[in-house]
Design a protein that fits this description.
about 550 residues, mainly alpha, 23 helices, two-stranded antiparallel ribbon, 2 strands
Length: about 550
């Protein structure tokens, strides 16, 4: 990295153009965001985990979660319209609250995206490939295919398949965002086709016929004709009366994906007409996911039955071997087996593969753009901001993120130190910072707000400030849910330290990661000051494209 200016006083860190180009259109941005929510995976997590809490209304929980996710989505959408640059909250927070706060906010998301790189890459095997193989084995009786399904769902299988996925995605990302979007949109079409087929099968096939076909094919996998009865008996599950607390707390599983509808904000410098489309595309993603989520939950529950779904949720993957199954069947697997048609079943299983890992591309891409933003502002080595003149992609940052994601994958599948929900509390800390920036932006950067496409007011009060304030409340509600969910892996109870890092230890880790950005900024500023460069001056303007 290099600076420019006179040696007699503090120098401003010189920015060159990033080299990134605007390749994402309206459809690309929408699909990019929908994939981060991963509608099929979102519903799969709902069915697999939420009924076991007891008395949970899945539709109500989904609606409540969407209502809490919408204000934050709208906040990101408006900020992305005002400052259409890559880096997301790093740009927003640093230009409103100050550079140290921007680094703290965004470094937090970058670290968690690295750590969460292992989750969706592992899900490709456990929620995508293994269910498809079980579907094929159930219809064909092929034992070798069933064995492969069991291997795919094992820690070794999840690691091998997940690592290959990360390597392939990183290679595609290096070739260019345009290449990735073409691949993304085709695979999204397969995923949506499978989703439509699930709805059609559950609506056009009577529950009795579907459950009879399901019992036949599930029995072939378990090696016992009474598989449905065994599931109910072994789980001990009984439908309970409505429980509002459990319905609210279990939003944690939905927010895991629905809370991240604003992925396109982090590639804002590569979105065409970002100032016009981001403000609508980002919150529109939540609505899109809500509609399809409700349709899937209603239609599948109607066809499969609340009692059987609850029994499978209660047994889970750990209890499935008790009835002869290698893993708890996912909801799309139940519908595919119940369809009674191999072609339909294959299309459903194949399409849902592309829901299983769909948030992984956004994590790698978004985090790589964050690294570029840090390097451009002089906080990290300039190599991270190097963009290939041929492909217009930050190759070094992408390779680094790909490698770190494979490390995270190994931690997730081979150790007990990372639970699926533990980092969302930390993400919410960033969301609160972003929302606070939205509240204050019209007052701290009035010129920027006045010239923006979202300079709306209600009774003289900026709409951006109102939405940001509502978003803060929504984020606090979700933090309460994660701290009170007994299966979130994070707690305020210090006594949980005796049992390991999960619990209070994860709470401390969330806070430590959040604050670590301040330390990094302090070190970078000290180092640049020694070189005679005042990096704080760079934050008075919006980053270059």
């Amino acid at each position: 990295m290099s600076g420019s200016g006179q040696s007699s006083g503090p120098r401003v860190f010189t920015r060159a153009a990033t080299g990134l180009v605007r390749e994402a259109g309206l459809l690309d941005a929408l699909v990019y965001n929908v994939n981060f929510i991963s509608i099929g995976l979102m519903v799969a997590l709902m069915f697999l985990y939420m009924p076991s809490y007891g008395g949970v209304s899945l539709p109500l929980s989904l609606v409540l979660c969407a209502l809490l996710a919408l204000p934050t989505a709208a906040t990101y959408g408006m900020l992305a319209a005002i400052m259409p640059r890559s880096g997301g909250d790093y740009v927003y927070v640093s230009r409103v609250l100050g550079p140290a706060w921007g680094m703290m906010s965004n470094w937090n998301t970058t670290v968690w995206w690295v750590l969460y790189g292992g989750v969706p890459s592992a899900f490709l095997a456990s929620f995508g490939i293994a269910p498809l193989m079980r579907i094929i084995a159930a219809f064909t009786g092929n034992v070798a295919v069933l064995r492969f399904a069991d291997w795919a769902a094992s820690p070794t299988g999840m690691f091998v398949i997940g690592a290959l996925l990360i390597l392939i995605l990183t290679g595609i990302f290096i070739l260019g965002l345009g290449v990735y979007f073409r691949v993304q949109n085709v695979l999204f079409a397969f995923a949506m086709l499978a989703t439509v087929l699930v709805v059609l099968v559950t609506l056009l096939r009577s529950p009795g016929v579907l459950q009879s076909s399901l019992a036949q094919h599930l029995a072939a996998l378990a090696g016992r004709p009474d598989i449905l009865e065994a599931l109910l008996r072994e789980s001990g599950y009984e439908v309970q009366s409505f429980n509002l607390r459990n319905t609210v707390i279990t939003m944690t599983w939905i927010y895991l994906t629905m809370g991240f509808s604003f992925s396109s904000a982090y590639i804002g410098g590569e979105v065409k007409q970002a100032s016009k489309i981001q403000v609508w595309v980002i919150p529109g993603t939540v609505i899109y996911a809500l509609v399809w989520g409700l349709l899937l939950v209603w239609s599948v529950t109607r066809a499969v039955g609340e009692e059987l779904i609850g029994a499978i949720s209660t047994l889970g993957d750990a209890g499935a071997p008790n009835v002869g199954l290698a893993a708890a069947p996912r909801f799309h697997e139940l519908v595919a087996l119940g369809s009674g048609n191999l072609l339909l079943a294959f299309l459903i299983g194949f399409g849902f593969i592309f829901w299983s890992y769909a948030w992984l591309p956004g994590q790698i891409l978004n985090a790589s753009r964050n690294l570029v933003a840090y390097a451009i502002d002089g906080l990290m080595p300039s190599a991270l901001a190097w963009v290939s003149p041929r492909f217009h992609t930050p190759v070094v940052s992408l390779v680094l993120m790909g490698g770190l994601s494979i490390v995270s994958l190994a931690i997730y599948v081979f150790t007990p130190y990372f639970a699926t929900l533990v980092g969302i509390f930390g993400f919410l800390l960033t969301f609160i910072m972003v929302s606070l920036s939205a509240v204050l932006l019209p007052y701290r950067r009035p010129d920027l707000f006045a010239g923006s496409p979202v300079a709306w007011r209600i009774g003289g009060v900026p709409v951006l400030s109102i939405v940001g304030a509502i978003s803060i409340v929504a984020c606090l509600v979700m933090q309460w849910a994660y701290l009170n969910d007994p299966y979130s892996g994070i707690s305020l109870d210090p006594s949980t330290l005796r049992e390991g890092i999960l619990g209070f230890g994860m709470f401390l880790l969330n806070v430590a990661i959040f604050l670590s950005g301040l330390v990094i900024y302090g070190i970078a500023r000290w180092w640049r000051n020694r070189q005679g460069i005042d990096i704080s001056l760079a934050y008075r303007e919006i980053p270059v494209e």
